[in-house]
Amino acid sequence: MPAFSDYPIATLADVIRFENEKPLAQRYDARSVYDVFVKSAARHPDHTALTMVMTGEDGEKPRLVSYRQLLEGITKAANLFTSIGGAVPGVAYILPSLVETHLVLWGAETAGYAVPINFLLQAQNIAELIQASGATILVTLGPHPQLDIWQKALAVQASIPDLRIVRVSVSDAPLPQGVIEFSSALATQDGKALASGNTRRDDDIAAYFHTGGTTGSPKLVVHTHRNQIVAAFGVAVLYDISETDGLTVGLPLFHVGGAISCSLSCFLAGANVIVMSPSGMRNPLMVKNFWRIVARTRATAIGGVPTALAALVNVPVDADISSARYAISGASMLPSCRRREVPGHDRCQDS
Questions:
Q1: pLDDT level of residue 173 (50, 70, 90 thresholds)
Q2: Minimal CB count within 10 Å: which of 28, 213, 257, 262?
Q3: What element of type H or E holds 333?
Q4: Which strands form 272-276's sheet, in the order they lie side by side?
């Protein structure tokens, strides 16, 4: 495992000492987001990178993806996007949290740039963001009984006729003419080497994430490869994440917290990202069965926004959660919580 720090980073003095000891390049020399996955796959190829919990039901067998498999899937996705959009393709996506969403996000950043979009936005807002970003490819969820993502994608395409649609299918619904089916197209791509010309790195644009739109229409924010690596490295150091850790992640991948703070940081350290269902903690079973999921996956870190963690305070601890080391939260301060009589877990902390 990489020795990111020989001592805990707990105070401002620790941060200053850590920063003054040596530059980032001497601690972690990745120059692109793709390098992160190459390095982690080389260190521990068979270690679990992703645990996909679909329903949260007792007895569910999660989908496990190793670092070798994740790197191969990202390589294939990058090559697919290059074959569709040419050099430096812009790839927007409106998807729930899936293994495929990770392949799309990191594959898009490798080939060109990603444009993650909140699928709860209206079609008009989605179209405006895609047009502003210059993306020419839209990856979207196919017809779904509870989600209207596919209908929004079709409405967006109607206003941007040249937009290429790639569909992640969850049913056997017919594929419209001109639409590319993600899994079958992915299977035709090389998973061992990137197409020539895929050398995105350093200050090249990796993604355009959008703001929440609370003060008007959502606006795009630029991420470079260096931005994302520095941010992910900082989280890995501050929370002492290593390949022995597993973090429960209920945040969506159109959110920088879900994508960078809770995912890329873990991938950088070789940890296990435990995806808490496609809809995250909005899934009632994720809350109801949370402690049993922690026990089954041997999660060591519990991640969530304050509202999700506050809901868990009222859920009885009905499983062995001794694997959990701490809980992290962001967006706002955690509310005060009642001290629980659980050995080794008698306090809560804000982030």
A1: confident
A2: 213
A3: none
A4: 63-66, 48-53, 272-276, 246-249, 301-303, 326-328
Alpha helices in 197-320 (DSSP H): 225-238, 256, 265-269, 284-288, 290-297, 306-312
112 with 105: CB under 8 angstroms? no
What residues have CB less than 8 Å from 333, skipping those under 6 apart? 306, 350
Instruction: Show Cβ contacts of residue 46 under 8 Å, excluding neighbours closer than 6 positions.
Output: 66, 67, 68
Here the tokens at position 297 are 């996956």
pLDDT in tens, 201-256: 999 999 999 997 666 788 899 999 999 999 999 999 999 999 999 999 989 999 99
Full DSSP string of 67-133: HHHHHHHHHHHHHHHHHHH-SS-EEEEE--S-HHHHHHHHHHHHHSEEEE--TTS-HHHHHHHHHHH
344 in the Ramachandran plot: left (φ > 0), alpha (ψ -120 to 50) or beta?
left
How many other CB atoms are there within 10 angstroms of residue 314's CB atom? 8
Instruction: Determine the Cα–Cα distance for residues 35 and 157; give it in Å rounded to an integer.
Output: 33
Distance CA 138, CA 159 (A): 13
Q: What's the whole-model pTM score?
A: 0.92
Q: Are 108 and 64 in contact (CB under 8 A)?
A: no
Task: List 64's β-bridge partners, or say none.
Answer: 51
**Separation of alpha carbons 212 and 116, rounded Å:** 12
* Alpha-carbon 298 to chain mean position: 20
